[in-house]
Amino acid sequence: MSLVNLIEFPMLGDERGSLVALESMKNVPFDIQRIYYIFGADSEKPRGFHAHKELQQIAICVAGRCRMVLDDGYTKEVVWLDSPDKGILIGNCIWREMHDFSSDCVLLVLASHHYDESDYIRSYDEFLKEAHKPFIHPLSDVKSINIGQDTKIWQYSVVLKDAIIGVNCNICAHTLIENNVKIGNNVTVKSGVYIWDGTTIADNVFIGPSVTFTNDKKPRSKQYPDKFSKTTIKYGASIGANATILPGITIGEHAMIGAGAVVTKDVPDYAIMVGNPAIVKGYVNK
Ligand code: T46
């Protein structure tokens, strides 16, 4: 999706000249709380260099032109503002810079909130942190604060306090992650997966929907083993939908576990496992 969200305002012109009307919640998608304008800006002195936590704005060059740079922490885009009937909508958490003001430039800005310095993020590093902060869906229950940047945790997922989840993971809806669980970076956990104490999942692992992990070889209600068996899924392994991983198993790097397989023994690196009990069907190459 482009960062440049231009709004074209209808020109209500006639032979006497042009007129543009800006109306809250009509052609301006927020309540206008403040209007300011920048003029007499020095073309050699760029402005902006900040983002806002909440503020939404529309900037319109009602005279002259300037070059705006927008940055969402992933990509940058450049747009020339040079027309009084064209406004750019700048959402929250977008870094903006204004450059190359023409001497006649008047930059009009409509803002969704009153001026509040505490809403500014003026350090680029702080902005990047904010832009890449994990997304925790409001319908999830995430107690851990050890969730890496760019990770997403979706609806009806429960993550207990001591779980550790790396960067850029996708933890889909309806998952449970217990305390003594360590998940690396770039891991996908599809829906319906419960990850119990004693499980370590390395970087780039894919866990398909409804994969079943276990950590107790002889489960009895209200009788607990001295310690729960450990499960280790190594770098780049994939586990197909509905596979069951019995307690104490290590799955090797890049291994591929077929859908519905029941894994009863450690899996070598690169092995393709299928069936119940799962057997080596072949090997994937790098
Ligand atoms: C933005 C870009 C497009 C106020 O007291 N009230 C105000 O409403 C505004 C906008 C600014 N100020 C004070 C704060 C500073 O002491 O005016 C001074 C200059 O503001 P700033 O350095 O933030 O100006 P720009 O041109 O770098 O940025 C402005 C807006 O602040 C900002 O929200 O998105 O224009």
TrEMBL record:
Statement: the UniProt record of this protein carries the keyword Repeat: yes
Homology family: Belongs to the transferase hexapeptide repeat family.
InterPro entries reported in the protein's UniProt record: Hexapep (IPR001451), Hexapep_transf_CS (IPR018357), QdtA_cupin_dom (IPR008894), RmlC-like_jellyroll (IPR014710), RmlC_Cupin_sf (IPR011051), Trans_hexapeptide_repeat (IPR050179), Trimer_LpxA-like_sf (IPR011004)
Keyword Cell membrane in record: no
Keyword line: Acyltransferase, Repeat, Transferase
Cited Gene3D superfamilies: Hexapeptide repeat proteins, Jelly Rolls
Domain Sugar 3,4-ketoisomerase QdtA cupin: 4-130
Official protein name in the record: Sugar 3,4-ketoisomerase QdtA cupin domain-containing protein
Highest taxon listed in the record's lineage: Bacteria
Organism encoding this protein: Wohlfahrtiimonas larvae
PANTHER family assigned to the protein according to its UniProt record, in alphabetical order: ACETYLTRANSFERASE, ACYL-[ACYL-CARRIER-PROTEIN]--UDP-N-ACETYLGLUCOSAMINE O-ACYLTRANSFERASE
